[in-house]
Amino acid sequence: MTRIPTAYLYYLFLVIFVVFITIAIVVRENKKALRADKIVGRGLPSYEFEAFTFVFVLLIFLYAVSSFISSYTEVYSLLIPEYFDHWYELFCFENIQTMEEYFREQDKSSERFKMSGYLRNLTFLLNVSFAFIGGIYSLYLGLQKPEFGENGIYGKNKTLDWEEIEDYHWKGPSVDTKGEKYNLVLTHTSVSKIQRLYTLEDKFICTIYSEDKEKIDELLQRKVSKSGV
Question: What is the pTM of this model?
Answer without folding.
Answer: 0.80
